[in-house]
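INTERNAL AUDIT FORM
Audit reference: QA-55
Scope: verify that the stored structure record matches its stored sequence.
Auditor: D.O.
Record contents follow.
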Amino acid sequence: MTEIILKNIFKSYDQTEVIHDFDLKVDSGNFLVLVGPSGCGKSTVLRIIAGLEKITSGEILIDGKDVSNISASERGLAMVFQSYALYPHMSVYKNMAFSLENLKMNKDVINEKVRSAAKLLQIEEYLERKPKALSGGQRQRVAIGRAIVRDPKAFLFDEPLSNLDAELRVTMRKELSALHDKIGGTMIYVTHDQIEAMTLADQIIVLNDGSVAQSGAPLDLYNKPNDLFVAGFIGSPKMNFIKTNISKNQNSESILQSGSLNVQVQDLDINSNKNITIGVRPEHILVGGKEESDIEVKVNYSEQLGSETYFYCSAEGMPQLIVHQAGQNMISKGDNLYLRFDRTCVHLFGSDGKAITNKIK
């Protein structure tokens, strides 16, 4: 079990700063996922931890020891790459044993470690094959096995499933989760796929432009995003956003207005929040009758997936709304729907993009 801490990390290439005042704590035995859009700096952070990138300033601690100026080979970490990085001329066995042979380890010990890891990963029957004779999923298991035999202090994964097809990614996600449960090691995993992040992580860190946008448990980020960026990045399909103006009606009640949408709110400071963005996830939009509805929309497109249905809707002066309904629904393109937002699940964001208290009535 290993604790990893990054303190005040800065990383720049010449005049271009890519990581800004970055802090990170990975508790021993945790599965932490770094997630964010392309170019946000997540792979750079992983390479900094591995020792493959030197920091411009800051401090890297592994189990309390400062390793900022220690080489990658001396940090005791194992990295699994997106490209697998297997030796094509070597058998699976040789690929997994290679690093141990370089350490002049006893052959019997090497054999025990390789075969134990192969059994854990269910690749025993492939030990004599070359990588070219394996599927993508089998190659990824070999790459993980090569890391396991080293008994590393922590495992680092750099988008390891991105080269696999959709069905195999689901299978490998389950296998990685089961592997973490079995060996209990500290794992840091980089991905741009927020579904991978939600399903694998004990803790997620969302990066945006080289900085931490938000950190927390998967459902905390889903249910309580700090800002518009996190709210839009976590969740699939993404959260619906509606930019509104705030005004007073004849009864001096505060109203959020956008196109034909008018929603009453309470206790909002109009002076500091002239523009409010309403955020509501597709599953939190209810289809019902006209009287209790917030807005009438027209269905532009319908996705019937058998176990669930998605409607893509429009209304004058409004952005497209995505509505999720469980099960099968025979509503078709061109139909009108009356929608109401679930008041307990609506998010409000101020002019600065930061979340504010939900005060919709």
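Auditor finding: record pair retrieved intact. The CA atoms of residues 85 and 143 lie 7 Å apart.
Action required: none
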